[in-house]
Structure formats: structure tokens, C-alpha cells
Amino acid sequence: MKQLIVLVLTLAFYTLQIEAQSQESLTLQECYQLARENYPLIRQQGLIETSSQYNIGNITTGNYPQMNLSAQATYQTEVTHLPIEVPGMQIPILDKDQYQVYAEINQKVFDGNKINKQVKIQEALGDIEQNQLEIQLYDLNKRVSQLYFGILLIKEQVGQNNLQEKDIQLAMDQVQTRIQNGTAIESDFLTLKANLLSIQQKTTELIALKKAYYQMLGIFINRQLSEEAILIKPQEGINPGGINRLEVDLFDKQMSLLDLQSGLLNNKVTPNVSLFARGGYGKPGLNMLSNEFEPYFLGGVRLQWPIFNFYTHKKEKEINQIEKDKLQTQKETFLFNTKMELTQQNTEVDKYRQLLVTDNDIIDSYTKVKEASLFKLENGTIDVNDYIRDVNQENKAIQNKLLHEIQLLMKLEELKITQGI
Predict the structure, then answer these.
(1) Which residues contact 96 (CB under 8 A, 6 or more apart)?
(2) Is the pTM of this model over 0.85?
(3) Which of its termini does the chain have fewer beta carbons within 10 Å around, N or C?
(4) Comparing C-alpha atoms, which of 369, 333, 319, 372 is closest to residue 248?
(5) Which domains does the chain show, CATH number per domain?
């Protein structure tokens, strides 16, 4: 007997454990986070950062000494010679074939801080790419929330259908009793039964749709969701005002990038100063009158000033400013459209709140009518069609309330997404 009790308790424990595991619960915010972590695009974050670091590393090598190795062999039709003759002296004449192999090292001394500007531009580009990626990931929330609230609404509708079935079943039991007593006819029972089957059909459709929504949500969050998984209904809360959209930050970052690029344009008309050293081996070497292969070395300071860039510098600056003005216009347009969208969504929120105020009164009225109809049906003063009509009116009022509650939560969530919260 003791062993049987232990076995029963053990089975009960495992049954409760399995049931608890199957009835996992999720919040909307958890779904957002899981969908973000599972979305393939999230892997680009690391790739963007790595690529940006590589590019910055390549740019900073411009501060290191630069070495070039060159070689050439030439043949020329004329060579330098002295146009004089000295009695008793033979002046050497250079060969027309000449050879040079040399290495040159350059070290920048002044370049108008060009390298640092290029590094800042690359950092800004990487930041912009990350921002654009975040915008795409944030849009994922809209798709997840539609599935989440769709499941909540279907569950409420299925629950209400079950209550409506009980009302119809109660009437069927009473009509069945009246048929046996000879105070009702078979068609009344069949009418109620047809209505019950119609409700069950709607429930079947809703359950199939719920299953599909659960499967799609499971794909987004990378979980095998049971149809019994509990989705916690979000609280209404109060949304703070203002727009905190990532798109606004993107416009600002793009304009900042243009400012950095404008600063780099100044380097096109800035002189560059560098030290250089060249060592080589050739014929001739530094002695232009020697026909022998000789090593040589020379070094010094080099100044380079791209004068021609002055002609295009002003136009390039103007083009840069035009691009900045275009971005500012796009930003203002985006903010204007977002404010219009927020105004519409706030109006929708107010509408559903006002509808919910009267929903309870409507339900109470139809519930009383239904209860009175059931009493009349019991006493045979109305037919089943009148009762079904009153049951359907109550059900419709309850379904409207459920719909308004979920729609209010959906609109509040849309409001948050539009604001960028």
C-alpha cells in the first residue's frame, strides 16, 4: 500500500512538472528580445565592427614610414656630354643604355591632420551602419507584436465561444425536457443544435489560426511553442511624449559625417611636407659622367602642394552643403510624418478607451435580456429563434469588448514603436 502511494505521488509530481513546462509563459518584451537574438541580421553587428576596425587600421598605416622599391632600364637616343674638346684629354661619353635600382623611404611631417580626419570618418561610417542595422531590427518588433496580440485576441474569442456554447447547451437541455413533456417540438431542438454546431465551427477556425500564429511566433523567437503557452497581457501604462526614433539619430549622424568630409576637403588644398631618403645602385649613379655601376644615397625634405585642387575645392564644399541641406529636409519630413502618425494613433487610443466605457453597460443590458429570454423559453412564451437572437446579441457585445481591449493594447504598443520607446 505504501509503495502504491509513493508511486501515485511520484506520477503526480512528474505530471505537474510536465504540465508546468508545457505551460511556459512569455511577455511581449521577452519575445522582442528573443526575436532580436534569433534574427539572422543580428550577426551583421560583429561583421560591421570588425570591418570598421580593419579599415581604421589600414588608414593609420599612413602615419608610418612608407617605402617604395623601383627599378628601371632605359635606352635613350642622346646623352649629356660636354660640347668642348681639351687637347691631350679624352672626355668620357655616357652610354645610351642606363640602369637604376633604388629604394625610397618617406615619412610624413605635416599633412593637415589628414589621417586623424580619415579615422573619424571611418568611425562615423561604422556607427551609421550599426544605426541602419538597428532600424531594421526595431522594425521586427511590429511583426512580433502583431502575432502576439493576434494570439491574445483569439484566446479571448475562443473562451467567449465556449461560454456561448454553454448558453445554447443549457437551452437545448431545457427544450429536450419540454419535448418529452409535449410542450415543445423537435425542430426547436434542431435549431439550437445547428446554432451550437455553427459556434463550434467558428471555434475550430480560431484554434487553427491560433496554432498558425503560435508556430510563426515560435519561428521568430526560435522556440517550439506549445499552444498552451501563456502570453502575458501587457499593462496599459502611460507613454511619455516625444519622438526617440533611431531614424532621427541616423539623420544627425549622416549630417555629422558630411561635416567631417567637409573638413577633409580642406586637405586637398593643404601643402604636405615629408622627409625622404633614397638609396640605390645604378649606371650612372649620382656622378653623371661615370659609366660605371655605383651605389648612391640622397635624402632631404619634400613639399607637395596640389595647386590645381583650388579650382574644384569651392564647388566640392558647396555640393557637400547641399547634401547636408537635403538630409535636414528629410529629417524634418520624417518628424512631420511621424507626428501625424502619432496624432492618429492617439486618436485611436482615445476611441477604444471611450468604447470600453460603454461596453460593460451594453453587455449588462444584453445579459439581462438573455436571462429573461431563457425564462420565457422555459415557459414557452418565446420560440428558440428569439432566444438564439438574444444569446448572439450578448455574445457580440462581449466579443466587441474583448476586441476593443486587445485593440487598445495593440494601439498603445504601436504608439510606443512609433515613438521609438
Answers:
(1) 75, 76, 77, 78, 79
(2) no
(3) N
(4) 333
(5) 22-76+93-419 (1.20.1600.10)
User: For 243-270, what is each residue's pLDDT tens digit?
Assistant: 888 899 999 999 999 999 888 888 888 8
Which of these, 392, 401, 330, lies nearest to 161 by C-alpha position? 392
Phi then psi for residue 299, to 5 deg, are -155, 165
Per-residue pLDDT tens for 76-94? 888 877 777 767 777 777 7
8 A C-beta contact, residue 107 and residue 300: no
**Apex 87 CA angle, 83 and 90, nearest 5:** 65
Strands 272-283 and 294-304: antiparallel
Buried b (16+ CB within 10 A) or exposed e, 173-186: ebbeebeeeeebee
Distance of CA 254 to CAs 130, 139, 247, Å? 12, 20, 10
Contacts 24+ apart (CB under 8 A), 319-328: 320/258, 320/261, 320/262, 320/265, 321/262, 323/258, 324/255, 324/258, 324/259, 327/251, 327/254, 327/255, 327/258, 328/251, 328/255
For residue range 377-391, list pLDDT tens digits in order.
878 788 888 888 888
pLDDT of 288: 76
Distance CA 270, CA 109 (A): 13
Whole-number CA gyration radius for the chain: 42
Spatial separation of the C-alpha atoms in residues 85 and 82, rounded to whole Å: 8
13 pLDDT band, cuts 50/70/90, is very low
Residue 296 pairs in a beta bridge with 280
